[in-house]
Amino acid sequence: MSIDWGNLKEAPSAQAQADAQSNTQQPSPAQQAYATQLANIENEYGLGSIGNAQAEDQYAQDIIAMQQAGRSDPGGNIVMPPGVSGNDFMTLLSTMDNFASSAGYQYYPTASQINSLLRQGASQWNQQQVFQWLGNAEGVSSKMPWASAGMTHTQYDNAQTSLQDTMAQYTGDPNMYGELVSEALQKFGSNSGEAGTWITSQLLNNKKYSENAKTPWLQFGDTYQSWKQYKLQNKQTAVGIYNASGNVTDAQYAQMRAAGYQSRSAETGGAFNMGQQSQPSSLVTSAARSSAR
Question: What number of other Cβ atoms are within 10 A of residue 135's Cβ?
Answer without folding.
Answer: 22
